Amino acid sequence: MAKRSGARRIGIFGGTFDPVHIGHLRGALEVAEFMALDELRLIPSAWPPHRDTPQVAASDRLAMVEQAVAGLPPLSVDDRELKRAKPSYSIDTLESLRAELAADDQLFLLLGWDAFCGLPSWHRWDALLEHCHILVLQRPDADSEASDTLRNLLAARSVSDPLALNGPSGQISFIWQTPLAVSATQIRALLASGKSVRFLVPDAVLAYIHAHGLYRASN
Ligand code: ATP
To answer: Looking at the whole model, is its pTM more than 0.85?
Structure first.
């Protein structure tokens, strides 16, 4: 095994990825480079507690993310939520990741602003910062507002420079990314109406979608 040289910096980015698209991938890559992450794991959720059931099977969503990040370090895919027979709670994912990491490794949970605003409804949300830092990603179409609870949390825990987040966990910072106003909803709608999604998803993902007949109106 390679010799450890200091704390590792690991980002995690969850989503339904139904399907994964350039908004996810470009954002993930920019954050990984800006934050000098050793690894940024995309974690497809099996049974998202806060939204509708994904349109295609978990195995297909996983395969598409695998195709998208193949040969693209530091991006990788982590399938632990698909192996669990219960809702994909982030706190469970963080606890299981922490059990595999060194105590000084830094974990960064990437969340879109909308997701961050919904945080107080998450299972055991107040324990999340015990395991990770939170990086809030600004999205072009974000129009949610933070509650008073979250404003208080930000007042207590936020750091203006994301590169100044220190220690393994416990702080929050904001990060900007190139706006790409693309969503999986738009991609599913285009495919259902027989239109092209070329350049909205990587070519390998497009090939997978066509080879498996995904997202057609009859699915
Ligand atoms: P849907 O349209 O089905 O709701 P989505 O495109 O928003 O899907 P998700 O899998 O729900 O994709 O998103 C996973 C994460 O990726 C979320 O944190 C979300 O905010 C972020 N994300 C999605 N699209 C973009 C984008 N265009 N730019 C930046 N971040 C994005």
So the answer is: yes
